Amino acid sequence: MDMLRERFGADLLRLEKLLHERYGMNAAAFDANGARVTTFVNWGNSLCPVIKDNPASASAICAVANGHFMRQARETGLPVSGECDAGLCKFCVPVKVNGDFLGVVGGCGRLPASGEVDTLCIASANGLSGEKIGILAQDCRPITDDELAEAVALARDQVSRMTSGAA
């Protein structure tokens, strides 16, 4: 059985809800194979569910970013933050027990403070018009570097608490 889901599923669900409530992010935990750990559906904006619901844009934007960020977190053992190809902030924190990488938890879906949605990338992957993307992106709230750092620190601290003493 998947240790991440079995041992930490309830804790990760609480953390996802906290990240969503506090920072308005799409929060999620993924196991080491990239599968979602919980079924908590949460959106920080109107654009992300449209990207995620389309298999072409989900694989071209979301899956690529998830894979890249997860790989970095696995290799470094450190939190990773940056932007997805749609131009939205993303971060993840590795979940490790006894040096074993179990997965990541993090959030995405907010705009960098000085950033903008990459309409061309989304239109290319999804087929939506620039006008439709602009309408959907209107509620993509900016996040400051300090807020992003707070979200990362919160996730890192919660992961540390939940995994301390786990064997």
UniProtKB/TrEMBL annotation:
<dbReference type="GO" id="GO:0016301">
    <property type="term" value="F:kinase activity"/>
</dbReference>
<dbReference type="InterPro" id="IPR018771">
    <property type="entry name" value="PocR_dom"/>
</dbReference>
<keyword id="KW-0418">Kinase</keyword>
<protein>
    <submittedName>
        <fullName>Transcriptional regulator, histidine kinase sensor</fullName>
    </submittedName>
</protein>
<keyword id="KW-0808">Transferase</keyword>
<dbReference type="Pfam" id="PF10114">
    <property type="entry name" value="PocR"/>
</dbReference>
<feature type="domain" description="PocR">
    <location>
        <begin position="19"/>
        <end position="105"/>
    </location>
</feature>
